[in-house]
Design brief:
Strand content: under 5%
Number of strands: 0
Number of helices: 15
Largest sheet: none
Radius of gyration: 20 Å
Length: 330
Amino acid sequence: MEQLVKLGTRHYLAISFIAIFAFFYSKDSLVATSVLYTAIQFALPLALAAMVGVMCERTGVVNIGIEGTMLISAFTAFFAGAILKNTVQGMFIGVFTGAMMGLLLALMAVSWKMDQIIAGVILNILAAGITSFYYRQNYSIPSTLNPIDLPIVGAWPILGPILSFHGPITYFGILFILGLWFALFKTSWGLRSRAVGEHPSSADTAGVSVTKLRYVNVTIAGAVGGLAGSYLALEAVGIFERGFTAGKGFTALAIMIFGRWNPMGAFAAALFFGLTQAVTNQLMIDEVVKIPSQFITMLPYVLTILILAISAGKVRPPAAEGIPYEKEKS
């Protein structure tokens, strides 16, 4: 058990991918490729949502409202795309909606110094209420965002079909996650953000505006949550229903913790979760086990709970997380 705890998320990811790919590849190479391709599709919105939590909590703001941000952004993205007959414009409106949700959270948590858990719950309730009240049937978008064919990547053996022919948000999301990791640990902005999340008074003494940085980071994080919601509505399925996000924002919080508030760790955890979802789908298609589909659908969430239970004692959140900052009076 101790050895399992010491393993990082990248180890879980590598072991899982190799074992599952080898299992399916030994039976059918096309099935193995399909499983890993689907895993990326399942993982991407969770990974982007986890980045929302990373950006907020690294700055010292707890964001329980990721679920609401994704839900209302998916709502505005879909209906804007349907009304304007343009999914790209709908996507940008969804991103803007997410940014406004992030700005509202910053207003409540930073300026009004509300309890941040309550502030996040308010966002979730607000999003659920608005999307349920204004939801209308018989709307449709012209088409989902078109996948992009990458000839060079597609020509790679084995990995080519897995990494090629995804939608634009998928590729942008992957690049954003890589860029966020670099910015967080290799730039002055990242150093200031982490300092504000760990020791805001020291950062303030060093000339860093705690309030400004928290506002900027939480608002940008909200825009990323809007992109995750737009992905679900415009790239993944092309529809919207009440309760559309189905708990993905809360799952992303667990993924963020499993990833130790590190963009690459959270991305790896999201891929692991996406892989379990893809495998359960394949098990249902192949009818490998004769049990109700609801139990197979539960498997990814059960695995997530088990992994969090194993690693929970070894993670430490940012020291100033959830604590409103009061500037010391001289």
